[in-house]
Amino acid sequence: MKIPKGEVKTYKQVAIAINRPKSARAVANACGKNPYAPTVPCHRVIRSNGTYGGFSAPGGTKLKKKLLKKEGFMLQKPHK
Fold first, then answer.
1. Which top CATH class is 9-70?
2. 67 vs 80: CA distance, rounded Å
3. Is residue 42 among the annotated active site residues?
């Protein structure tokens, strides 16, 4: 809920923010079990490699991309 519209954090950044720096996977799992998506905006949490990751709400990652775009955020293509 603390990630503003148009911004994202990685699962790792969220883990660090809750003082559990080795718990990025647990953060991802918690986001994946969010029954209130997209009202509780777990769509604003992405993978450290710059990809979207999953999304638990009906519509999956297509909806996640659409919500982020609507909020003014577009992922950049990862650098190789």
1. mainly alpha
2. 26
3. yes
